[in-house]
Amino acid sequence: MAGTIKLNSGYEMPTVGLGVWRMEGKSIRDLLLSAIKIGYRHFDCAADYQNEAEVGEALEEAFKSGLVKREDLFITTKLWNSDHGHVLEACQDSLKKLRLDYLDLYLVHFPIATRHTGVGTTDSAIGEDGVLDIDTTISLETTWHAMEDLVSKGLARSIGISNYDIFLTRDCLAYSKIKPAVNQIETHPYFQRDSLVRFCQKHGVCVTAHTPLGGAAANTEWFGTVSCLDDATLKALAEKYNKTVAQLALRWGLQRNTVVIPKSSKEERLRENFQVFDFTISDDDIDKIKAIDRKYRTNQPAKFWGIDLYA
Q: The pTM is what?
């Protein structure tokens, strides 16, 4: 049975979710309905994924057919960089596309504001110099207070941040009236980020691991990165527990008290990624996984933005 984590907002968040990044329009319906049948109750969306409308159609079908009730699902979506000055409108645009009255969680996708290109267009406007056109007039604090207003308006039950480091997370904790419930970051056995994870958890911010399998084939294709799924240590441990390497990596994430949101476009993988609640990795083996950390980031938007924001 899937577990949940109680957020600082008081709401329960399922610990395994399905990320819908890079899912194509037509296949989304079948994938989402299959995922719900398998047991998934948490779906991680974003305006930038350009598929909220298709997700919304699938959700509406799931509700109308009686497959699941709205209150049984946990739906996350994210504010794109170009909409930091238009938080309310961006949230309303996402809700309309998703065919929902409220979001369970709304995240600031990246800690950076870029040139506004029209609500929901999610463009990454590039300047004449070939570099991302960063807006230096809107502070993250201003953006956050607009996020807080969504809670009082009943549009979002919980709000959070994404891709924030320790400095920015600390700052958000200091200026927030409503604390961020979640910080969604890339973390996996090759990019463990123990200091950031512990800092967030110490201050009541739940960590959600995007790219919990190290990006696998998708990030190899886009960013030319290596996946931890091919690691010899993980392969040996997976064999020991009679699990796949992906299941071992996800279980490791759960045992760190993080939420994991693997992405898959294959039904057998959806099923496999959900079968991670029936075994426990020993402390000794957790230590072995700790030793393979490479501080290796696979999600590299610099490729598209002409600027390395992590430099």
A: 0.95
